[in-house]
């Protein structure tokens, strides 16, 4: 099976490689604007499938993925600037939020989508702590304006669910999907 990761995320690439997957990387560019009234789960699943379909070529299985952060049902994507990152982190401080990753395997005929959900709890943060973190630049390319595996790790006191989902890909779910797909002739 020729697996293609339809993402330019260095974190997804590292997670798959560390877990021993053989794959190539083929990023795609799609519109990531949420649809009016779209739930966070529907949003990430839709984007994951769109990415998988856009990257597909004959003889391949493509893996599309998209991660978002949601608080009170509001989708927090990647911040557009430092002020946006500051506002997002202010919404997360001292609260528990959801991290959702949609993923989809596509073989040119059948799409096998899924969504993984993890709850993440942040310590209360001062304005100075938020400003210092935003100034590091780390939040700027991450959903919800933070990376659990980086400087923000010191703000997180509880993770309920898959840690790797928060990084950007629920590796065990992907493995399970690929194993099941292989057993059922999904090539």
Percent helix, as a range, is 25-40%
The total tally of domains equals 1
CATH architectural label: Alpha-Beta Complex
* CATH T-level topology: Maf protein
Q: What class do helices, strands and sheet pairing give?
A: alpha/beta
Work out the radius of gyration.
17 Å
- Provide the low-confidence segments as ranges: none
The oligomeric status of these chains comes to single chain
**What would the principal axes of the Cα set say about the shape?**
elongated
Cα(first) to Cα(last) distance is 6 Å
**Tally of separate helices:** 6
Question: What is the number of strand segments?
Answer: 7
Describe the overall structure.
Strands 1, 2, 3, 4, 5, 6 and 7 form a 7-stranded mixed sheet that branches. The protein has 6 helices and 7 strands; from the N terminus they run E-H-E-H-E-E-H-E-E-H-E-H-H. The model has no long low-confidence stretch (mean pLDDT 94). It is α/β, with parallel strands linked by helices. The protein has a single domain (2-183), classed as Maf protein (Alpha-Beta Complex), CATH 3.90.950.10.
Q: What characteristics describe this protein?
A:
single chain, 187 residues, alpha/beta, Maf protein, 7-stranded mixed beta sheet, 6 helices, 7 strands, elongated
Fold blueprint:
Elements: E1 2-5, H1 10-18, E2 24-25, H2 40-55, E3 60-71, E4 74-76, H3 82-92, E5 96-106, E6 111-122, H4 127-135, E7 156-160, H5 163-167, H6 171-183
Parallel strand pairs: 1-2, 1-3
Antiparallel strand pairs: 3-4, 3-5, 5-6, 6-7
Helix pairs in contact: 3-4
